[in-house]
Write a structure and sequence with these properties.
This protein is mainly α. The chain contains twelve helices and two strands, in the order ααααααααααααββ. A hairpin with a 7-residue loop joins strand 1 and strand 2. It is elongated and about 95 Å long.
Amino acid sequence: MGKPIIVGGAPTAPGRPDNVVELARALGEADTLPTKQLTDTPALIAQEADLYLKCEAAIENMRFAFWAAGKALQVVRDAKLYRAEFDTFEEYTQLKWDITPQYAGKLIRTWRVAEALFQARPGGDLETIVSKKLGYGHAWALVPLVEGHDVRAAVYLYLGLVKAKGASVTAALVQGAVEALPKAAAGHKAKTEEAVVAYLASLEDETRPTADPAKAVRALSKAAKAFDTGTVRAALEHDPERARAAVQSLIEVLSSVSGVKVTFLESDGEDAELDSGTEDAGESADGGPEDEAMAASTA
């Protein structure tokens, strides 16, 4: 059994163990761990609440340990503290800790931004969310921004995401925001927050559900039946200006998606002419046939 690992500086709460061995031992022996829900009640009973607290303590310790390990690995590497036992840092990581040099390198590249975020102290809900959500995945997604600009730029971006999305921030979201951040905005708090808002808005546009074509056809058919000649004339007599404006707006919307070219011609009186023709995308501007013209007037 390994020696207890004291994780100094990790968040603690009353009754929470302060080392890894105790964290695991507190969950119970392997053959006593629960394999299903202990009760049918919506609220946790005392036994469940206690077990839940211990589980969260173990998970929370893991989240904070990654950047402490990265910082420690950098010190061991740069100061060559391994030299009394090993010839190289790579041998040290593999033989001593059974981790690849590549993973050790990632931990080293990640710890600076993680430490900066934990020490940023943005206050209020932001600070609570950062302490609960920031893990290795989030920090690793920020590394390209750290190495391409600086730690401060990464801190501004992550806090901007948390401010906009709260606890729903994910590693994929962080990575996307880093890739979308304009170079001119990096390192500037206000510009970074604006860029984050624009990035999130673009995601909403991409995920907005597309209307059902069948429903659109039914809606158009229903509208065509509702707008009979008598109804339109009655509307024009009741409020001519507003009715004509509504008709024009409707025609413009429908024409923009149906491929029908519409031109409104102003007249001296109440009558107005409407020229329309179906555009043929396959004909050139100077060699295609003339569009058919149709005049329509409202009295």
